[in-house]
Amino acid sequence: MIVHIAKRIAFVVLGYFAALAAAAGAFPSILLIMSSFYPESQVWQIAGLAPVALFIAPVLLFYSMSIVMILTCIPAAILKLITEIFSLCQLWLHLLISLLLAASAGLLLMPDWFSGMTLDRWLLTLAVALSALIAGLVYWAIAGRMAGFRRDADAVNPRPADATQQQAVRRETARG
Fold first, then answer.
1. What letters, b where the CB count within 10 A reaches 16 and e where it falls short, cover 36-45?
2. How many CB atoms are located within 10 Å of the residue 34 CB?
3. Rounded to whole angstroms, how far apart are CA atoms 152 and 24?
4. Which terminus has fewer CB within 10 Å in the chain: N or C?
């Protein structure tokens, strides 16, 4: 049982860091795609510095990851502990948790964010929300879909197709 709990904690930590990396990597891509539909946006005003931005991007990526990690570490640990204790492994729940964590981190950084919303702020808000959804999906794929401290390590929920195949095998062995 202790080994299973240690494995779950390791998966939760791994999932958290992978989700942070996925969100931090997806954010500029999402922002670039969205702002290409709105050329009047000033979000990519620094696009003239593209050669320099290629060298600065990894540093900014890890810097933004560290800020988000500092702001969301404790709330994420509490929420992930609840999902593990109660074996809550629904995808929608992990996506919602990621959105709540992103919103809380954003509002901690800039409490007056939603006052005076401009096109650029809406683009940034949407990019953050989509990045949070990607982070939630990555976390769910690594750790969330198997959430539960109390779950037996060898227990696997059979899919309906597997259950019908097992019943067919049992019938065949019972006949012969």
1. eeeeebebbe
2. 17
3. 34
4. C
Using an 8 Å Cβ cutoff, are 141 and 77 in contact?
no
Region of 132 please: left (phi>0), alpha (psi -120 to 50) or beta.
alpha
E strand residue ranges, 37-103: none
User: Three-state SS for 86?
Assistant: coil
pTM comes to 0.77
pLDDT digits (tens, 9 = 90+) for 84-110: 889 898 999 999 999 999 999 989 988
What would the two tokens of residue 10 be? 């390791």
Query: What's the sign of the alpha-carbon dihedral 37, 38, 43, 46?
Result: positive
Distance CA 30, CA 44 (A): 12
Q: How many helices (H) and strands (E) does the chain have?
A: 5, 0
- Closest by Cα among 32, 163, 16, 165 to 83: 16
State the CB neighbour count (10 A cutoff) for residue 29.
Answer: 13
Q: For residue 61, what are its two tokens?
A: 């990526």
Burial 70-93 (b: 16+ CB within 10 A, else e): ebbeeebeebbeebbeeebbeeeb
Task: List, in sequence order, every beta strand (DSSP E) within 16-161.
Answer: none
